[in-house]
Structure formats: structure tokens, C-alpha cells
Give the backbone structure.
Amino acid sequence: STNKTLVIGVVHFICHHLKEIKMTSTSEPKSDFSKDSMSTKIGGRNVQPAFPVVDEAPPTSLEVTFDASLKIFTSEHVPLEPTEGIKRRERVLNRMGSLCRDWIKSVCVKRGLPLNVINSAGGQLFTSGSYRLGVHEPGADIDTILVAPNTCTRQDFFGTLPVDESQPDQANLRDPSSLAERIREHPDVTNFVPVEGAAVPILTFDWEGVNIDLLFARLNSASVPSDFDIDNDTVLDGVDSATEKSLNGPRVTNLIAALVSGKPERYQTFLKVVRCVRKWAKNRGLYSNKMGYWGGVNINIAVALCVQLYPNASPASLLRKFFLVFKTWRWPNPIMLTKPHDAGYGLQVWSPQAHNARQVAPMITP
């Protein structure tokens, strides 16, 4: 089968290259390349990697040859989203953004707010996960988050109406002015499912055949302007738990992208290896947070860590190092891209003293 061929191909590729190149020890960095050289600035703060660079050596001629082999392999087994599909996704997001901003204005009008407040309310639609990174996997869903001013509530978002228990047929009634109902009634939307009772409430639906997961974040602010910086820690001031978790998606994704974007070729190497590992994991039945395996964000973080350790590695070399690094990882030492950061707003921050005893394979979001 195609899946079996892919699995055998990836394993053969890795095993062959393991024989050709000797891995540099991760315990003794071989150069003076410091963490500072891989640091980045985002949201107004400087961020440094949690671990020092292991090897900054550029690709050898042999590794370049392996890259050519990997390119042939991935072109056949790890296809990219066609241009038509990419344009459709962009079109869907643009239309969603317009609908969301119109809804925010309607809520302000319903509240009887002054015209200047209505016009400045704004609202922004952000993406996170693999779509935001540019993985461009065919048929993948898009994780989105609507960041709205404090005028809008989660009740306005979902529009759930009080139900008369004597009339069970009213259980699914929603306020027609809610965003959930506006999306559900849109002619291009199908498979609409609201999940209001989850720890992170979500709307999931297909828009023109593109699967969308939409989260809601309510800021402690009267407006969300077009130049709103979601990466600045001040956005966390005064938000509830659901909003904090929703904001975490794009904030983590943006930081991952920033940490591996020192050079254009480095970022492309990151994307190529992410695509290969995702494909490998899915074909081995090892891709699913719900089933206890790594999901998209886990693979993104793991590959980003390898980029930090080997910032100049070629795609083929980094793919090999990915499997070597995590084959020998000493659990429960956590995988992390940066040291845990306390923004100072009373939110939970991971610490080994509080969590290590009950976590066997921790991976800390940056």
C-alpha cells in the first residue's frame, strides 16, 4: 500500500543516513555559538532558547546529496496544498474576518454605545498551528481565534438561549444575532458544531469545504485595533481562563515561528522537516493528542528544538537528527524552546517542582 511504502521509505532514508554521518554529541557543544545568537524579540520582550546550540556547522557535500534524495521522496509522498486550495483558504479567512467584525459592531449597537466607540471596536481574526506556520498540508483544518473587545461576551458569541425544560425541542435554539448563528446560517457553511461546554469553547464547521476551528477571546479592553499586538503580554491582563487558553494558540505559534526564522533557508528547513515528521507519524498511526500521541503543535515544538540545536543543518540532516534526539531524550526532562515565562498576571506557569512528579513526557509551550 501507499502508506506502507511511505513508512518503509522514511525508515530506509533515516537508517541509510545514520550509517553515513556521525552524530555530534548533544552533551558537549563543539563551538562558541551561544544561545544569544538564536534569541529573538517578540511582543516587546527578548526571548532566548532554553538549550545552547550543539552544532552550527553548515551542510557537507554529502548532506546536500541527501537533500536531493529527500526532495524527490517528499515530492511524491508529501505533497503541498495546490495554489487553488491556498487561495480558497485565504478567501474563506477574509470573509470570516469581515463577518466577525460586522458582528462585533452589531453587539456594540445593541448595547447602545456611541458611534465613535462602535467604529473603534475593531476585532481581529488570528490563525495558529500549522496553517499559520505555512506547512500547507492538503486538506488540513485551520485553527482560528477571534479576539474581541470586552463589549462582546461568550454568551453573545454562542447565543445560547434559556431553555424551558418542558419544551425539549428548544434545546438547540440560539439568538439569531449571535456569531454562532450567523455562521451556521451562512450559505457556504456546513457541518456546523458548537462545543460551548469545553474547557476552551469552540465552533467547528466547514466553510467552502475548508474545516475551521474557531475560538473566542474576550479582552479586557474596549477595542481591538488593526495594529493589535497579540504577542505582547499585556493582552493577558484581566482575561479569564478560557480566553487565556485561546490566546495561547497564536501566541505559541508566533513564538515558534520567530525562534526558527533567523534565516529564510532555516525556516524552510523547519517546514520541510515538519511536513515529513507529520506524514510519518500519521502513516504510523502515531499522530493524535486525543489518543495520547503527539499532535501538530507537539511536532512543531519538537522540530523547532532541533533547529535550535542544529541551526544550519540541511533538511535531510535535521530529519535524521530529529529521530536521534528524541530516541535518546532523557524523560521526564521536559522539551522546551524557552525557559518558562511568568508574565506577572497570576496565570499558571509550569515548574518542575510542581509538575514533574506526575508527568512522564512533558512538553512545555513557549
Q: What stands out?
A: Residues 83-110 form the longest helix (28 residues).
